Amino acid sequence: MSAPIRRSEPRSQGRSEPRSVPRAEPRPMPRAEPRSVPRAEPRSVPRAEPRSVRRSVLSDGVHESLKALILEHRLAPEARLNIEALARDLRVSPTPVREALARLESEGLVRKRPLAGYTVSPLLTRDEFNDMFDMRIVLEGASARWAAIRATAGLRATINIEATISYEAAAPDSEGPRSHASFTALDARFHDRLAQAAGNPLLRDAITRLHAHLHIHRLYFPYAETASTTDEHRQIAAAVQAADPDRAEAAMHAHLAAARTRHLQAFSP
Questions:
Q1: Which of 175, 185, 170 has its CA nearest to residue 221?
Q2: Pseudo-torsion of CA 222, 139, 196, 198, nearest 10°?
């Protein structure tokens, strides 16, 4: 008998364990430092003036130009004013001319009529002129009195300086209208300083309106009398500086009485 064949047991082949390969750690990349780029400095662009400011300055200039033309009678009393023509002459648009005429109307130098436009205010009659001076005596007497009481030290000094400025104006036909305008401005500024020192805005506004009518008449003012006007201003200023209300009011009344007499020469008897 043949010997039984012995079945060989399969060899248990052991599974080879995978080798643990050490994992390469990622190398830290060097961090790039940010480049410091020089920052451009912002350009200083000049700031444009606001339109309203420029417009206001233009309107003021047109107002002063038209006022001078009226005071010098280059725009005659009762003359009709053409806005377009004035704008061309002054080399501006019609808008600032309209604004200036509205201001001149509030000052009494021009009048506006429906459908007719603006005209230069007429000269006052003799009676109207006397009425105006009666009002000036009432208002400016109070102005001088209150200025002597209420004025600050700075305004007292300013009034005194204004009064000491002497301007010997020549007649308009010898040096042109410039002398008339200069004397008018000097006189108006002195009276306005007193009204300012009085501390009453309504009083100051009323005096300004009265002066507008007076200045139209100044073309006929006897210019040889400017020295008298200067002396009278100095007496008023001295009383205000001394804080003497009675003397200031009396000096103003005397000044206005003398001024009325000087101006009445412009009217025919």
A1: 170
A2: 130
- Alpha-carbon span 203 to 172, nearest angstrom: 31
Cα gap 99→59, rounded to integer Å: 7
Q: In a 3-state reduction of DSSP, which class is residue 82?
A: coil
DSSP at 242 = T
Sheet of 117-120: strands edge to edge?
Answer: 80-81, 117-120, 110-113
Asked if residue 212 lies in contact with residue 108, where contact means CB atoms within 8 angstroms, the answer is yes
* 176 CA to centre of own chain: 28
Q: List C-alpha distances in Å: 87 to 65, 91, 99.
A: 11, 6, 12
Residue with tokens 């201001």: 103
Which pair of structure tokens corresponds to residue 176?
Answer: 């042109």
Q: How far apart are CA 50 and CA 75, in angstroms?
A: 33
Do 79 and 120 touch, CB atoms closer than 8 A?
A: yes
Read off the tokens for 78.
């009762």
Give every CB contact of residue 74 below 8 A, 6+ residues apart in sequence: 177
Tens digit of pLDDT at every position of the chain (269 positions):
555 555 555 554 555 555 555 565 556 555 655 565 555 555 544 444 444 445 567 888 999 899 888 887 889 889 999 999 999 999 999 999 999 999 999 888 899 988 889 999 888 888 988 999 999 999 999 999 999 999 999 999 999 999 988 765 544 444 444 556 677 778 889 999 999 999 999 999 999 888 877 766 666 666 666 778 889 999 999 999 999 999 999 999 999 999 899 888 777 66
